């Protein structure tokens, strides 16, 4: 692996990396105003990018225009139809709310909790990703508040058509814990005005989780209360989790019946 790239097969491996490599980094780079954040991604081949810029990355590599071209149009479209939802919100708070409801924005989700990042490195709704190695990225910087002047300035740029869509600084931002999901995930955001600026916040430590170890690490995380239900505590998420649980029970029963029939057939033959 490349320098700065480490592998973790278990939660104990993650703790060992934290105890040695991450602590060594903090000893050498400590700043009283800085905090350490993590981001888990289920596919190591994808760079750490916000949803909007991931769309741009994907379409650009396929020779098409990126979705970021319509960034301000998408925002205005939603706000036009639900104006009361965004009354008195700061620009960053508006972006955070839009992302919460599924709109691609320049906000890159991060967390203060290494194990929560591990969950997202191992879990993905896209079943194709189960065969991909996961990754945990680390960021180190000073988190700003939503009412910070720089945050307001560069968040507001998302609401206007920009000739230079990657212009501006990128910041770590402490969100208001105004919805259960952000609170449960110990979340924060990076406002990704420029991907090159985001790279300046990256720590030269990347933790790779082999695809064959994802299921095991998820089972370990579940034992300490980190799972889909705890990280997505809304009613809609709970109903989905209940459905998925009992669908899995059906498959487990089918598998058990098939296995029993096979064993009996061999024994009887």
List the helices and strands and how they pair.
Layout: E1 5-7, H1 11-29, E2 35-41, H2 51-61, H3 71-81, H4 91-100, E3 107-111, H5 114-122, E4 134-141, E5 143-144, H6 149-156, E6 171-173, H7 180-184, E7 187-191, H8 195-199, E8 202-209, H9 214-223, H10 228-231, H11 235-268
Parallel strand pairs: 1-8, 5-6
Antiparallel strand pairs: 2-4, 3-7, 4-8, 6-7
Helix pairs in contact: 5-9
Shape: globular
Give the low-confidence spans. Answer: none
Number of domains: 2
Spatial arrangement of strands, main beta sheet: 1-8-4-2
Q: What is the structural class?
A: alpha/beta
Mean pLDDT: 87
Count of individual helical segments = 11
β-strand percent reads: 15-25%
Main beta-sheet strand count, sense and barrel state: 4 strands, mixed
- The arrangement of helices and strands along the chain is EHEHHHEHEEHEHEHEHHH
Count of individual beta strands: 8
Query: CA-to-CA gap between the ends?
Result: 50 Å
- Helix % is 40-55%
Gyration radius over CA: 21 Å
């Amino acid at each position: 692996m490349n320098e700065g790239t480490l592998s973790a097969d278990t939660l104990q491996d993650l703790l060992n990396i934290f105890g040695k490599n991450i602590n060594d980094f903090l000893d050498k780079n400590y700043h009283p105003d800085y905090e350490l954040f993590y981001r888990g991604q289920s596919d190591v081949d994808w760079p750490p990018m916000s949803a909007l810029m991931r769309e741009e990355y994907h379409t650009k590599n396929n020779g098409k225009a990126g979705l970021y071209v319509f960034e301000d149009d998408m925002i205005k479209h939603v706000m036009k139809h639900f104006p009361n939802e965004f009354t008195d919100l700061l620009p960053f708070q508006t972006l955070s709310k839009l992302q919460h409801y599924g709109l691609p924005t320049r906000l890159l989700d991060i967390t203060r909790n290494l194990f929560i990042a591990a969950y997202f490195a191992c879990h993905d709704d896209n079943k194709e990703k189960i065969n991909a190695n996961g990754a945990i990225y680390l960021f180190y910087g000073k988190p700003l508040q939503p009412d910070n002047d720089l945050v307001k300035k560069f968040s507001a740029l998302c609401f206007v058509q920009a000739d230079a869509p990657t212009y501006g600084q990128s910041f770590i931002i402490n969100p208001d814990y105004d919805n259960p999901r952000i609170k449960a995930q110990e979340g924060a955001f990076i406002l990704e005005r420029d991907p090159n600026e985001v790279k300046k916040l990256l720590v030269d430590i990347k933790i790779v989780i082999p695809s064959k170890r994802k299921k095991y690490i998820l089972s370990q995380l579940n034992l300490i209360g980190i799972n889909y239900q705890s990280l997505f505590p809304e009613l809609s998420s709970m109903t989905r989790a209940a459905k998925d649980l009992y669908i899995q029970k059906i498959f487990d029963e089918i598998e058990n019946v098939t296995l029993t029939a096979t064993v009996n057939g061999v024994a009887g033959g």
